[in-house]
Write a structure and sequence with these properties.
The termini are far apart. Strands 1, 2, 3, 4, 5, 6, 7, 8, 9, 10, 11 and 12 form a twelve-stranded antiparallel sheet that branches. By secondary structure, this protein is mainly beta.
Length: about 210
């Protein structure tokens, strides 16, 4: 379902990433602090429901030239603002989506064509960071990339809010998406008497750390 587009933001800011450790990039080791969450919320004619993603994986690489320009700084907000992160790819197994309701989960995986497309994948193309605001305790980030879902790929933009959290950066936000944007028919149950809404909201809350600084 298109709601997995919200995993976009979870990407760099959510899963303990594996980066290409070459040259200056060996000084960095982006990891995910314990307690990260990613929740997929939707509505049906019966009740509101939520699902969580399990088994997510991410690959992260950094720009060696920008790492050198950043010098010895390990302050994560500064590294993000310096566009040290070059690429990342987030992969979510369709079978790793679970709401706790077997019937809903089965219909969800069927709608996502999980037998043909085992994974949901997001590839970042670029990201932007808003200019610093004097006295502000948070900052805004926008990630741009391609989401591949149920055999359909589309461009997506995801907004997040960052805030310093110890030596790391906590990122929170949400993203509304439509299943039909990915040619997915919203699942139904009980012979069509229970219908799910087309709109899905993805909520995320995670703290990213530079493990090399700890």
């Amino acid at each position: 379902m298109a709601w997995l587009g919200g995993l976009v933001v979870a990407a760099v800011m959510m899963i303990g990433g594996r980066r290409e450790a070459t040259g200056a990039s060996q000084a960095l080791a982006f990891t995910l602090a314990p307690g990260a969450s990613l929740e997929l919320d939707g509505d049906s004619t019966l009740h509101h429901y939520s699902a969580k993603a399990h088994g997510m994986k991410i690959d992260v690489s950094v720009d060696d030239a920008r790492v050198v320009a950043a010098g010895k700084s390990s302050e994560l907000e500064a590294l993000i603002r310096g566009h040290v992160i070059k690429t990342f790819e987030l992969t979510v197994p369709v079978n790793g989506l679970a709401s706790g309701e077997k019937g809903l989960d089965a219909n969800m995986r069927k709608a996502l064509k999980g037998d043909l497309y085992k994974d949901i994948r997001f590839r970042m193309e670029s990201y932007e960071v808003a200019a610093p605001v004097v006295g502000a305790t948070t900052f805004k980030i926008v990630l741009h990339g391609r989401l591949s879902l149920a055999g359909v790929e589309r461009h997506v933009d995801v907004d997040a809010v960052g805030a310093r959290s110890g030596a790391g950066v906590r990122l929170t936000g949400s993203k509304d998406l439509l299943m039909t944007d990915y040619q997915i028919k919203p699942p139904t149950m009980m012979l069509g008497t229970i219908k799910t809404a087309n709109l899905i909201t993805v909520k995320f809350d995670a703290t990213l750390r530079n493990g090399a600084s700890s």
